[in-house]
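Practice problem 4.
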C-alpha cells in the first residue's frame, strides 16, 4: 500500500481555518488529523466539538481524530456524529481498551490505539488483530513542533514484525516531529500514515510540502 499523509490541523492558522482546510482539500493529503486535548491526559487544551463540527463542514477528506483525553469512551458517539472516520484512543487512557476498540468499530469507523513514547509495542500482543491502526507517538503528546524521538524507528520495526507475524491488517501511523528528513526512513520502517503539523503549516508552500511527503522527495 502507498503511504498516506495526514496534515495535523493543530498547526493550522485558527483564524484562517477554512482557508487552511481548503488548502488540504486541494492538496495530495489523504486525511485530516485532528488533535483533541483535554488538559488532563496531556498538559494542553486544543479544541473541541464546535470546532470539529466547523471543520467537518469544509473538509472533503476523512477526519482522523486523535483523542488525548481521559475516559475517551464518554465521547466516542459524539466524535462519530461529528464526522470522524477514524478514532484513535491512547492505550494509557483506557482501562478497558478492548471495550473501547469494540465500541469504535460498532460505529462503523476505523479504530486505532495510540502508544506514548515510553509504552512498548508488546502491550498490544493480545489486541493487535482487533484494531485497524496503531499510532506510534514519536513525541510526548500535547504540543506540536517538538523533536522526533529516534527510538520510534525501533518501535515501528518491531510493531511491523508483530503485524506480519499475525497476518493482521493493521495500519501503522506515526505522529510527532515528522519532516522531510525522516519521512522516507519512517515509511521504509513500516509506516502507512505520516502525520505532519509544523512541517506542513510552517512551510512556505504547504501544498508542495504535502506532495513531497507523499512522493518522499
Ligand atoms: C502532538 C499531536 C500531533 C502534533 C504533531 O500531541 O498529537 O498530532 O500536531 O505536530 P508536529 O508534526 O508539528 O510534531
Ligand atoms: Zn496527533
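Answer key:
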Amino acid at each position: 500500500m502507498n503511504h498516506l499523509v495526514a496534515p495535523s490541523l493543530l498547526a493550522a492558522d485558527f483564524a484562517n481555518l477554512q482557508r487552511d482546510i481548503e488548502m488540504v482539500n486541494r492538496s495530495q493529503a489523504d486525511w485530516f488529523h485532528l488533535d483533541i486535548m483535554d488538559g488532563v491526559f496531556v498538559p494542553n487544551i486544543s479544541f473541541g466539538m464546535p470546532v470539529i463540527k466547523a471543520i467537518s463542514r469544509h473538509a472533503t477528506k476523512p477526519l482522523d481524530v486523535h483523542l488525548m483525553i481521559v475516559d475517551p469512551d464518554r465521547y466516542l458517539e459524539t466524535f462519530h456524529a461529528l464526522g470522524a472516520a477514524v478514532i484513535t484512543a491512547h492505550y494509557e487512557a483506557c482501562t478497558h481498551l478492548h471495550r473501547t476498540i469494540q465500541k469504535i468499530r460498532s460505529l462503523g469507523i476505523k479504530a486505532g490505539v495510540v502508544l506514548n513514547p515510553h509504552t512498548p509495542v508488546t502491550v498490544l500482543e493480545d489486541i493487535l488483530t482487533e484494531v485497524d491502526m496503531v499510532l506510534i507517538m514519536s513525541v510526548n503528546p500535547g504540543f506540536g513542533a517538538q523533536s522526533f524521538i529516534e527510538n520510534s524507528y525501533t518501535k515501528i520495526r518491531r510493531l511491523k514484525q508483530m503485524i506480519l507475524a499475525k497476518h493482521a491488517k493493521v495500519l501503522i501511523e506515526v505522529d510527532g516531529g515528522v519532516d522531510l528528513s525522516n519521512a522516507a526512513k519512517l515509511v521504509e520502517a513500516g509506516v502507512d500514515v505520516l502525520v505532519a503539523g509544523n512541517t506542513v503549516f510552517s512551510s512556505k508552500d504547504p501544498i508542495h510540502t504535502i506532495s513531497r511527503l507523499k512522493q518522499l522527495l
